[in-house]
# Entry
Amino acid sequence: MTIDRDAVAAARGRDKRAVARLVTAFEDPRPEAAAARRDVVAALDADGAPLGRVVGFTGTPGAGKSSLVGELALRLAAPPSSSAVAVVAVDPSSPVSGGALLGDRTRVRFPPGEPRLYFRSQPSGGAVGGVARATFQVCRLLARLFDVVIIETVGIGQSEIDIVRIADTTFLVVQPHAGDHVQFMKAGIMEVPDAFVVNKIDLDGADATFHALRASLRLGAPGRGERPVYRTSARTGDGVDALAAAVGAGPPPGLATREPAFFTGWVEAEYGRWGRDRLARLGADPASYLAAHGGLDGAQLAFAAAMDLG
Amino acid sequence: MAERDRPAHLLLDAEGRATRDAPWIFRTYAGHSSPRASNALYRANLDKGQTGLSIAFDLPTQCGYSSDEAIARPEVGKVGVPVNSLDDFHLLFEGIPLERMNTSMTINGTAMWLLALYVALARERGVPETELKGTTQNDIVKEYLARGTYIFPPEHSLRLVAETYEYCVDRIPEWNPSNICSYHLQEAGATPVQEVAFALANAIGILDLLRSRGRIDADRFAKCVGRISFFVNSGIRFVEELCKMRAFGDLWDEITRDRYGISNAKYRLFRYGVQVNSLGLTESQPENNAWRILLEALGVTLSRKARCRALQLPTWNEAMSLPRPWDQQWSLRLQQILAYETDLLEYPDLFDGSPVVGAKAAEIADGARAEIERIVGMGGVRAAIDAGYMKSALVRSMADRMARINAGQQVVVGVNRWTDGLPSPLVGGDDGGVFKVDPAAVDDALRSLDETRRRRDAGRVAEALARLEEAARSGENLMEPSVECALARVTTGEWAHALRRVFGEYRAVTGVDGATLDLDAERTHRLRGRIDAFAAARGRRPRLVVGKPGLDGHSNGAEVIAVAARHAGFDVVYSGIRLTPDEIAQSAVEEDADLVGVSILSGSHLELAAQVIAALRQAKAGDVPVIVGGIIPRGDHQRLVELGVARVFTPSDYQLVDVMDRIMDVIEERAAA
# Structure
């Protein structure tokens, strides 16, 4: 696949069709797709615009992530803010057919034609960590085009939480009656997020859940310090402004620093132990390997070529 | 004559003389184009021996929009009559005496408004409200589950339902404020057990709400229990349907007695009306539907103990289009022959004591009782909607049904068996056997709306709307403020928008998550191979955007297609219902779709398809192919193709693997171009 410069310029202007086609190119799992990505990244980085921040929202099915994320995106982009916000919503692919039913759009309604808001559904493609293999790549693109990129993961169980390897800040969303504090404490997932959201506070039981969550956070993950718990209702809009403020005040964007780790994961997923051994034999740590090949895409191309040569 | 000497086959009156029952109310679900055109139709139907009215409203009226709003325009007068103001009700009921009429209104999201219009009409005509008889469907729960014409979030919608009960119990004692509707549940795929359980759980939800609101005393509450009526579907398995009706009656008697302590047996009666099944009507060999309708009518009339109070029959050509007056007359004649020519009404119940019927009814009642307990245990019907529980169950049942038909396990004559038939002379006329809305009649409705806006007292309108909003905020009963709005000539859209400002709007769960299908394994395997090859060559799976433009909320078709497409290996973005053409185009563009599929059942397929294609072109995505599925008359297929539609699918395309194969054809054609 080749990308022409007009398409990149149009995407820079947030033309939806151009953005959408580039997202498709960044989702392409074939090793040779890295060449097109490398060109796009180079073209976009030429003007020196800063990367946007990447924010992850994860949580159990039914916690109301989609509605909350939709409402949050609208608030982040609402005047007087001039921020542009992209949402990527991941849904599971069928392990049998490989197809996916992506339904998150039904809960989000952005005004048609607004270039500062973009929504994209993404199939998990068989990955089990709550995001797709392609999610990281798509974030690399969208963080170059939008001020904030929100990732909504697959509804998760008690442990899968790959989103923290992508996002600058990860929020875990729970709903009222999500569990008592013992359940919160034993869930491995609680140790990982940077902040929490009790959503659907218009329903009964929200206060109890909030307090149970706070109590278990103090006991459950001693090394993590105080982590904030926000209270929202996507339905009434209560608390969403406070959440939007927290998103805006998060740590500086750091997607690029996570590229070496992504590269290592990619090598393992694509080439298994053979690939990992090969990477070790090349004698470079992943970060220097990336630096030597002009970044992630160049490294992927070079490594794929090396593997092809055997 | 002593009890034991009385011949068991005789039906005796109070004096012990042999008699026959009065027939049920004969209705025809009707309405189209404009109030004036519909009035002419009603009067003609009443002249032919119809004994009650059943009013079909168009989608803008059902969803709370006036005819001149942008989202309403393509749908005005399509599936029913547009009603914009009290002036339209005067036209609609001209020459029809309200005090002698039994009027059923299939209206839900805006039920309170239409009831307020009816009350206002009676007041302006000088008819006492207490003499009004009829039913507002006013069953909001099944709108969330199956039919889609909800407006507000559940708690506010349920408040409106409760307030109509609280108003009617004193003011219109013979009105059925709501008609708990299992009809659409069967259309959405419900099994008999699900149909009984979900409908009764729904009724329990309303009664629990009325009791917990505490605005009526015990005596009035008992009357409200007695006023709950039901609207039931009757399918082709007519013996099972007969048993289902008996199970309904037994369970309702049990619930009203045990849960609500109603001692007066009259208030525990399961009173129901019927529209027999449309789901099983076929587009191929459509004349066969006449027999299906007859058999389905038997299921709800044969057993005296479980006989319906009112019956409306669809027409033989309903799978193809809206019915013509002649089609409706033919269905009405069926009812008249059944009631007056046969001896059906001369006997007591034919099935009391039948071990077969008794056991089958008990089986359905037992299954339904367990299901009701599950729903009540989840926190009741409201919580079960929020959790998507019932919706998911229905989507699964529908998928099972489609799979059985696909596999030939469920025989549908003319569809999967004996498919070769002679051409039907019934569809040979100039009109092709289908009804066309006269566009000029729609203009008549718009003119009437203009005139109302021009002639009304703007000050009174503003005051009435302000009063309505204030009552909505304060929790006061909204009926009387709504009647004042009606008298002031507030429009349907204005009434609904005022309440939207206070209550907000509802967005639905889809129910498609987790549903699976069982299709022809061999062909599915081949199709998956084809899709995998495409994905390997293109770097991603073929990607569909599926949605419903317009106001029609019958989402089953779109959902089944979405589930089937995932099953085949497509990535499917399901974007939901009630979308504007711009929203569908935006989904297609943002998702970089390979194909857009839209489902349209309202009869507005030409307008909506043209608008979707125009919106795609506007968004620089005119190259994305569009397919349309729905109830689309043969004669319109070519016109859709001329508009730029790549393929048209109708109910006769029931083989889902075929549909998926043809979708893949379109995507491959485009990729090759």
